[in-house]
């Protein structure tokens, strides 16, 4: 097993996750088995209890793990399925050490950060690595070198390098090279400082990836080489490119794949990037652009909806279009609601498709219901995901079945028409962390429906994250009014997909199809939306 640690210097948001995923993709397409781990140095045991505004989207894995969005990048770039152990947080490490202490595993000892926490980190990394049966394990260290909270993780990395040796463990450091002044000089000082910081902890990076708005000049590389103690050929450029999907190609062409394989003594098969290049070219050269509105509540931070955005990119590449996502903050009831609604309808009148994503809490739900109503009444292609699906059912109940005030009991416990209600098993839940209906669940698809056509299968697995469901007491009446529940859970009780057969494309799902979308295998419900939007655009524009 070979380990590649990827750290970040200078500042966050440098694209460390993309660098890690890109290298993973290059090694995988060179015939190696690759896995990845994300380290998050915060005290939450997982990302499930965090507001997307704080940390971006909560990504959900097959096993129900609620994890950092970087695991989504790994799954998409590497086309693999990860489990929750692949996201290590300080909270998880401490919880495990404290449980062991209570059990008496350390009896007689004083339990301390060094050695116990660090040992726990090392064990976790090597267990996950070995357990995966892969050739290479990439470990992305969240945070920036120098942060107090990431120290135990860096110490664990240092010790692993010492114990396993430089042939099995290497370090990649990603940094920022700003360009300053009128002459546009590439500045290496921040990089020098952050490498100095790393070296003071006992880690000498093997490779430096410099993030810059332009390709690094040879003189810049030489300077980094000299001051950071790495060969010039181990300094790579990750400059701004048209799409993140180009980054693997960019790094490969500079020799990163070969350099890593040399350092780790890995076998050297051809790196087959043909299919990937084709995908990137399709992304870069769309034949037309369509507009799809995303009516949400965290639209101020695009990372909150990153998997939706990716699913659009994948679908666009397949359908030959690029998607201009129109971010709409759902109007909230109160002063100015009517006016905000008018503004929203105005925006919706020029789009070719509407997506209402998942969410929690009442804020913005009335605005979203109005967006769904607008989609249905104007026959604009619509996809509702999780909360978006539940709201589509409330909208249908209110405006088609005439059940005024129909709602989810999540937002109105007293509603006369509780068309969406809490899952019975959720009534026993007292703690918030990791207690929703989570992860991959089987769904049976009814023949001769839109959903069947999209999936081309009678049985699918999709990932879930919710506490509420379409109220079983209302299903028959809703179906009698014309909505078809085309996807149902294996036990026959939970409605997983609902559609309106007469509409151009009006469909909702209780699960999150965005988590399983892959560059070359877009999520069927997204692809369906994009294709319907493309046709709708043609039709409307003649
Ligand atoms: N709040 C809703 C529920 O818990 C929807 C959740 C979601 O959209 N992920 O069921």
Structure description:
38% of the residues lie in helices and 22% in strands. By secondary structure, it is α/β, with parallel strands linked by helices. The strands form five sheets. The protein has a nine-stranded mixed sheet with strand order 13-12-14-15-23-22-21-18-19, with helices on both faces. The chain is globular, with a radius of gyration of 25 Å. The N and C termini lie far apart (58 Å). Glutamine binds next to strand 19.
Explain briefly what this protein structure is:
Helix content is 38%, strand content 22%. The protein is of the alpha/beta class and 542 residues long.
Walk me through the topology.
Blueprint: E1 2-8, H1 16-28, E2 34-40, H2 52-55, E3 59-60, E4 66-67, H3 70-78, E5 87-89, H4 90-103, H5 113-131, E6 136-141, H6 151-164, E7 169-176, E8 179-180, E9 185-186, H7 189-200, E10 207-212, H8 218-228, E11 235-239, H9 247-253, H10 256-263, H11 274-284, E12 288-296, H12 306-319, E13 321-329, H13 337-348, E14 353-356, H14 365-377, E15 382-385, H15 387-399, E16 407-408, E17 418-422, E18 437-445, H16 450-455, E19 459-466, E20 468-470, H17 475-480, E21 484-489, E22 495-499, E23 506-509, H18 524-541
Parallel strand pairs: 1-6, 1-7, 2-5, 2-6, 7-10, 10-11, 12-13, 12-14, 14-15, 15-23, 16-17
Antiparallel strand pairs: 3-4, 8-9, 17-20, 18-19, 18-21, 21-22, 22-23
